[in-house]
Amino acid sequence: MKIHVEVWLAAASLHEKGREVVTTRELQDEVKRLFGDERSGVVTHITARVSASSPKAHGVVYNYLTRVGPGTYRLCRVEDPVHASRLDRPLWPDQAEVDEQYWPLWRKWVAWQQGDGPAVAEVAVAGESVAPGAAEVGQSAFQGSAEDDEPGEVEEEELEEESANAAHYLYSSYREAMLEHLLLGELMRVAWRNDWRKPLEVYKPQVDAAGVDVVLVRDGVTRPVQLKTSKIGGRARAVNVHRSLWERPGSCVIWTRFDPETLELKEFLWLGEPGQPLPPLEELKEARHTKGNAQGYKAPRPALRVVPKGWFKRLTSVEELVKELIV
Q: What gap in Å lies between CA 177 and CA 310, rounded to an integer?
């Protein structure tokens, strides 16, 4: 069977055992237990291809799982919200794609996805288990298949590309920290070259609760800075900025755009003038949560304002950025 079918069946199997919420690792282990499948594409399918909560990053996607927390999922029901880029994608695999031994499990949990029935645990205990046993030890349930998800030259290249794309959100915190270090190092380097007698001082708040990521000081000029990043070629048209920056003199926003393959810092979008307030707060929309509740309502985030890209000044080098920061 194809990987996306195996992942759906693994989730259904775990629900069958009474697990209301499952982790990425549990799904990966269940795919291995049921089908003997250890392909690298399994993790990418769980976190990207079949996750209805993730933005569409592949040509073919499915809305099999909904994210209920960091790294945790359950089967997606018809009333669950899905990402705007994934509308009208299937919530379960076609029965023809499922091996016959799994049809009882497929029918039971598709019916649960379709309806307003009881919780997972209540469905799981209603009657005997319909999940078949694990694949025999030493025998992969997908060996001998000629389907598209079989490894091969093209498939291996596709999996490598998927893994590279998945890394940007699976390790997003690591990536953000790395890009911050790269940016600060470049700012310090350029400031040193301009005048080593006036070094750029960098201060980091212990608690990031007011939107200030770093404070930059040089030659008597102090700049509270909020940092943003996005990939070159990405679809970001605005960023959320903490409203506390409007209360801090000299506040600014540095939106770094980077190459997703090399992680090079390619250009900068700049907002803020020395000693001057940011653009009028009342002209900006209040930010909302990206994920809606069961009714699709996205709650407001009063502390954040949505600042469109058009309000930023485009800079193409760190040298230009240093000039804007420290005049």
A: 26
Task: Write the single-letter amino acid at 19.
Answer: R
Q: How large a percentage of the chain has pLDDT more than 90? A: 51
Residues 64 and 50: beta-carbon distance below 8 Å = yes
Q: What is the pTM of this model?
A: 0.53
Query: Which CATH code is given to the segment(s) 172-325?
Result: 3.40.1350.10
Please list the residue range(s) of the chain that carry CATH number 3.40.1350.10: 172-325
Task: For 72-82, write each residue's pLDDT tens digit.
Answer: 899 999 988 99
Task: Match 């909302």 to its residue by tokens.
Answer: 288
pLDDT tens-place string over residues 20-46:
999 999 999 999 999 999 888 899 899
Distance CA 55, CA 42 (A): 18
Are the C-beta atoms of residues 91 and 64 closer than 8 Å to each other? Answer: yes
Q: Give yes or no for a contact between 255 and 269, defined as CB atoms under 8 angstroms apart.
A: yes
Per DSSP bridges, beta strands 221-231 and 252-258 are: parallel
E-strand ranges in the chain read 22-23, 65-69, 72-75, 201-203, 214-218, 221-231, 238-242, 252-258, 265-271, 285-288, 300-308, 313-315
Q: How many CA atoms lie within 13 A of 109 on its CB side?
A: 34
